[in-house]
Input
Amino acid sequence: MKLKIDWKHVLSVVAVLALVGGGAGAIIGTVNAFTEGIISSHSQDKETAAFRECFPDAASFSDLVEVTGKTYVTGYRSALDASGNEIGKGYVVTGTSGFGAPINLIVGVNEEGLVHVNLVSYGPDNTGGTTNVIEGWIDSINEDPANLENGVTTGASNSAGVIREMIAEALASYEGGGSTPLPDGAQKYLDLFEGATSVGDEVTLSGTYLTSYREVYGANNALLGRGYLGAGTNGFGVHIEILVGLDTNYAVTGMSLEDYSGGTPAETEDTIKDWVDSVNEDPSNFDTAPSAGASYATIQSIVTEAISDYQDGGSSSENQKYLDLFEGAASTGNEVTVTGDYITSYREVYDSANTLLGRAYLGAGTNNFGVHIEILVGLDTNYAVTGMLLEDYSGGNPAETEDTIKDWVDSVNEDPSNFETAPSAGASYATIQSIVTEAISDYQNGGSSSGELTEEEQAAYDALLPDAIWGDVQSVEGHDFVKTTRLALDDNGDTLATVYQATYEQSGDSLGILVSVDADKNIKVGYYTSSYDAAYVTGVKGWIEKINNGTVDYRDDIATSGCEQAAYSIAAMLDEVKEIAGITDPTENPDLTAPEEVTTMLPAASSWSEKVSISNVWYAYAYYSAYDAEGEEIGRVYAVRLETAADNTFYVALNADASFVEVKLISTALTDTALTALNEWISSTNSSKTLTAPDSENAAASEINSLIGAIEDAQRDYGVNVEEDISAKIGEVVTKNFGENAKYDTMGGNFTLAGTPEVGKTYYSVYVPSSDPLGGTPTYPGNVYVANIKEDSYSATLLISVGDLVTDEVSDVVSAVDVVSETGTRNEETVNRISTALVEYYKGTLPTDEPDEPVEPNPADGYTLEEAMNEAFTPSCYYESATSIDGSSIFTEYYDVTYEGSQGRMFTGSILAGSETISFYVAVDNADFTSIYISSWGEYEHISALLDWASSYNNREEPVAGADISDVVASLKTAMNEASNFDPDAPSTSIPDIVNEFIEDGTYASGSSIGAATTIDDTFTSYDVLLLGEPFAQIVTFNVTVESHTFECALAFADDAYSIRGLKIANTDGYTNFEDLKTWASSIETLFGGSNLTGDETYYAVATAIYDQCFNAYLAIA
Amino acid sequence: MGETALSLREERKEAFVSGIWKANPLFVSLLGMCPALAVTTNFESAIGMGILFTFVLLGSNIFVSLLRKIIPEEVTTPCYIVIIATFVTVVKMICEAFLPELYTSLGVFLSLLVVNCIVLGRSEAYASKNTVLNSTLDALGNGIGFTWAICAIALVREILGTGMITFGRVFTFIPEYSLPILKLEGVYDYSIEFFQRSLGGFLVLGIALAIIAAASSYKKNKAKVDALNAKKAAAEGGK
Output
């Protein structure tokens, strides 16, 4: 039997499969084409954000540098500060998880090691329990890089292992100097410089000897110098090629003999090699000639040319041809692209004093015989030809005329006036004349054919400096943001300012600004262009205006800009402009930010920091840092306050080594003998620079002893970065002394304990969260205190744990001492004194086994706040100072209360009962139950019944109020209801619907919202309209009543605070012509034109009244 | 003729309504359990999953129904898979482009719609045998049924697990807002994080299934008792 194949059926199956597959592919392809760009943009945003998260302080990031030859690291971006210095690298690291899914990390690394790890993606879709485990682990690494070694014990251990390897490779890559393989042959350049890590691109030169150079960089991309490659032939025909390193002072750093061949080298090769070795050992040996004098002379020529090249910025580089066109030329400007008929670019040429000699224009054209001619022509500042170079003469029939033209060019170079003498090759001459004529024209009119500006761009320049006459736009290179510069000239041709055009581009967004810098280094910023939408641009322009007005600091006040992203971009661009223009930032080198009392104490200081507040030492509460001209800190002046019998404030100046300089009395309550004694001690101490304790009979002994402690306090703070060290240590100490589950809260800045001035004002309250999964109250096993001890030979910062420590088997209050920093031999007596005092203090804070019987408050006397607190929040509570309440007719303030690990609130309020005021406290506990405690009632006659009712109510007995007190009870219940529903974050008044209508109908930009209300007066209330969280316009509400009809009105203003955007009206009492009224109010034209004010008298009266009130509203906010 | 028209209308109504309640894919057919447990930790993700699921089901049902007469029997399953995978891929790309937070939130469970038994099941069981209109109604019904079911579970889990319902984290085009129900920061917190975990999901689903089973059982028993009572009453009346 033979198998019969139904080919028709097979074909139909194939056809259907092809149809389905093809259709699917077409659909997916179409959607992909549509979404690809958007997805890619998201991905880029995410990656950029990941880099930014690693280096939040970076001003910019370099382009991605691909890395090959690594297992996980695929590339990196350098994080750069505002000056372009590298502050770290963000490595793109890709691995595979335990389940074979991709893991993508950005690993931030700097010189100090791991900075931050960002999990960009884990697995194909970032979900599942393991993602949570890995995310948690990476978070813990970011909190403490030591956790990298811990790994995760369950859930994702394989992936954690891979991630650990990935991070390790990133770290190793950084240590390896940036992980990009060096270009071939670059190592020899590194060998010329100590500490060299990378090289720049090879720059080809066309000197007599030199052929190329590379710049060589060290750590942080600091330029170390250049490695020049040059070759020559000595008098004996030996070809010598050397690589010589020159540092930035043009001194030889090292040398490599690349070739020594031909001629008769044998006799001298070894001599030269030895000499090169000796130069590498000690570069100063370069000046000691070896016996092979001919070779030495050749090498010297090479090195001399190299030094010359380095000094003049490239005399033998490819710029040489430009320089050759001018006598005395030393350097050129950047190449400026020009779009003329013939000319394509030019460079400005300067002499060694940086005086402009003229321009060298490059142009090309084709003569009538089809010969392509390209020339470089020099024009001096009077537009006269200074020289010429024939770059190309090819195609067509050049043979017959090439020599003629070359000869003519030579004659022009010999004597530029020969330019006017036409050669016999007339067609070529005509072409060259056209090129030169266009160049002259371009030069004369300041750039008629140079980089064309759009109308928008030119308008931006004109808006920035309206009276300026504009020079050429010149391209500049080598900067992140600044792309061009342009001179603004006055009518006399004098420079008004240089205008820098800078553009910030990131993730598809761009923002361009113009920055003018005048001779006095004053800066003015202009808006140029951006891809932001119009609403955002308004904010950007407003921000620029504020910068120009000097009402904001373009960097410090970014948070208030309302357009943070753009403000950061503007700040980065302004920083770069300032750097280029050589403007020192006043915030970096302020004239004097410290008070005069401070600045006179360290007169050597060139600048001062802002005041820096400190809280972790006893007496000193702030300091100013003093800097020298190089920005090095040379000392500090501390502000110290003695909390002795009198309030005494001093400034204490210290040198950079924390040694004492001077103490100055600022304020004191001491008088007479004591003040005299204090001043005498200060005077002698300032002279002797020695802190000598006073006699016990000294009238200011107490203050002086405290002052000595204060000075030592300041010295200790300056010598030890206490707060950072403590932060690093506290977690470990809490875990060790109070167990693994213990956590801590930082209790801020107010703690004092008599007799222990060493104990810092900040301490740490330790707590252990409840193990009950449904919640529960934490336990508080103890506190950790900071002790700063400074004695003659002993200085230490200690953490003293006090409470029920896990290291102690008995359940008692004990202490443990952990060292943050310690020098010298510990004085156990001092430490014991402090520990004992802290233990006793701590014991005193604990509830005793048999607490004192609390005195029951007597409601008939009226509750005090303390009594109300104790009764409402049992067994004990803690509350801070009161917060006032605006907008409530009942309550004036409230207290946030903490009790038994829960939160509650106590409100202070009052109501009127007839003519009497009844004051009370309302407590709201964590379950929203309210209690009421009446504090005073004037002459209220039914107080007894009211107190009974309140007592029953507080006991949850649901009492019924008698007729005598029913009104008052109703008011109290309203009060309790208000307290129960109180939201501290809620705006004090609700926003009327008609105000919100302006947002809903698009009167304001998309994304706008209504902010806080401000009562202008009894009639008008103003609402802020917010954009990006910042108020930019206002809406004013008011009521108008005409003939028993009340109309609620809202008048919207534009961001200029006087243009009116619209009017909304609401009416709830059935006014018959309301629809007509709304129509009248719905457009500005009818509102102010009165075009349809043709109704009955009431209608007319209503409209007129509203119109008048609109005018008054305008006056009210104006 | 009138009878046929009525029958058709009822058939279409049945196609639409059945999946919403009577044959709800999650609560009655016990299909689609995986996403029902995985993406129901918050209400917004559940809504998102429901909408995307409905789109995939709609697309695949329509195309399977359109092609039902030309797809040879031997290759039905591969063809259905390709069609479903196409719509899942399209949904993924659109979601990643325009709702990246939802895309991240749903994660791998969006891709897994390719092998979702409801989608494949409705293609095989219904769309391959019915008209495009009926298949469309079936897809909409099952989509709505699945959506409300997972939204209900998510609502319970989010409220119990976090104490509040949060909007705007997944659908970022709306302002982020948390509606406190069992938790008000700093004031009270009765949330039980357990319900945010897998076991919490199982528990909520289990309780929901138990309630539905009990209700269904009660309804059946009541119908039986009513029938018996009616029979008895009829018998007594006969006497």
Notes: The interface with chain B takes residues 9, 12-13, 16-17, 19-21, 23-24, 27-28, 31-32, 34-35, 38-39, 42, 123-129, 773-775, 902-904, 926-928 of chain A (CB under 8 Å). The CA atoms of residues 802 and 815 of chain A lie 4 Å apart.
